[in-house]
Amino acid sequence: MENSAENVRSQMRKGVLEYCILSILEKKEAYASSILEELKSANMIVVEGTLYPLLIRQKNQGLLSYRWEESTQGPPRKYYCITEKGRQQLGEMDLAWQEIVETIKTIKGQVL
Amino acid sequence: MENSAENVRSQMRKGVLEYCILSILEKKEAYASSILEELKSANMIVVEGTLYPLLIRQKNQGLLSYRWEESTQGPPRKYYCITEKGRQQLGEMDLAWQEIVETIKTIKGQVL
DNA sequence: AATAATTACCTTGTGTTGCAAGGTATTTAA
DNA sequence: TTAAATACCTTGCAACACAAGGTAATTATT
Predict the structure, then answer these.
(1) Which residues of A touch B1 (CB under 8 A)?
(2) Pick from A5, A27, A103: which is nearest to B43 by CB?
(3) Taking 70 as the threshold, does the pLDDT of residue A62 lie above it?
(4) Which chain C nucleotides are covered by protein, judged by CB under 7 A?
(5) Are B59 and B65 in contact (CB under 8 A)?
(6) pLDDT in tens, B37-74
(7) What is the DSSP letter of A74?
(8) Residue B15: left (phi > 0), alpha (psi -120 to 50), or beta?
(9) What is the pTM of this model?
(10) What pairs with residue A81 in β-bridges?
(11) Strand partners, A82
């Protein structure tokens, strides 16, 4: 019914993906395909059907803005850029992430 | 429409909660209310409506078993216990968690 | 004895998220 | 002119967390 190992990873990605996107865009603007590559090279497998709706959601929430840019090879690219509101959200996410990492450490206790 | 800071935490909990439950039950058997308390003391806020379906899901997947035990104060308690299959799943989750922590570090890059 | 408080269990309905599996449009190479 | 590559996007589904309810057993209070 499910590939256990892959399902485990998929579930853990939830909620962390938005954090990853904002973190990537904090450094420099990027378009969807390049974000996919950066995630892939960081070992986080994400598919288009996940990323596009996510970017649109974050744009609708005012966390991102975008501009079109012609490409020398292929169709135009939609470059996303983090907004001030996005930076604030990212700050909250940094805190939330650190808290969760600490929580897991606490629960795993002396085992780890 | 949403409390941003709390929503961020709620989303990040997704997928990690199952990991927390198995980790808690790895150490010793426990019943729902005591699991709630342990999570709370580790700073992870979870409500009953989240925990009960989760325990039932994990039991149905064969990751947990349970037994009833009378209580000296109140109704009987349902003590959950991790199974061998649960331990295997926990092993996969340990790996998945470490991978995600590494991934975030990679993405945050030299910033952190 | 009747009522309230406490402790423990559980369910239903809703919104969010990730994914599989599709699709459209532009440019370049064959 | 056809195919390949690149880039965009949508629809339908399943899993999850949560709010807001509810039931049942024991003990304390009136």
Answers:
(1) none
(2) A103
(3) yes
(4) 6-13, 16-23, 25-28
(5) yes
(6) 999 999 998 999 999 999 999 999 999 999 999 988 88
(7) S
(8) left
(9) 0.89
(10) A65
(11) A64
